[in-house]
Amino acid sequence: MEFFKAGASNELDAVEATIVQMLRDGNDVFTTATDALFGGGTSKATKREVRSTDMGINEAQKDVRRSLLIHAAVGPTELPLVLQYASIVKDAERIGDYSKNLYDLVKFGANFSEAPDCDELERYRNKVSNLIVDAADVFEAKDAPAAQRLLGKADAFLDEYDMQVRAAYKSKGEVSDAVAHALYFRFLKRTTAHVMNVLTALVQPLDRLDSYDEAKEDR
Questions:
Q1: Considering the entire predicted model, what is its pTM?
Q2: Contact predicate 105/183, CB 8 Å
């Protein structure tokens, strides 16, 4: 990215900072939603926090798009960088959307604090939360080697989520438990893939951005 920012502008610096903050806010809403899933339950305060944080992320996405449009129209344009940010900002925004989906499981009656595999479920939650935080730090530092290491680590998570979805499908317990488990791991997978897509801006050429939410054989 630094190559394309040879004539660095305040506008693009602000865009980068906004994307970093979107990731940090995404982790906040993800944590709030999953805390509810692991025994916190639903409440007006939790619903308000999930909704307001996600709305803030949505507004940040709009700000980024407006800034990029203005920069491309009237500023000294680093076109590849503008296109990169226009692509990955939607991935940062999707973290809030999938957090809302996780909170929906709570509204439907899911409570993983009572699940026999609660510790394992929470371990996966922590993996995703740590990934979001680490991705924000790596993106802020523009640390390409660290981004590549994080992508390799997270890519292995995707396979684990698929295995967990298959296990839920084949389980013999309550249908509601199987559905909750399958959706939980599906939402974790999608969240992970979108975080990975943000990191591709540090390590991939423009034409290969936004590929980690595709099946591995289709990338």
A1: 0.90
A2: yes
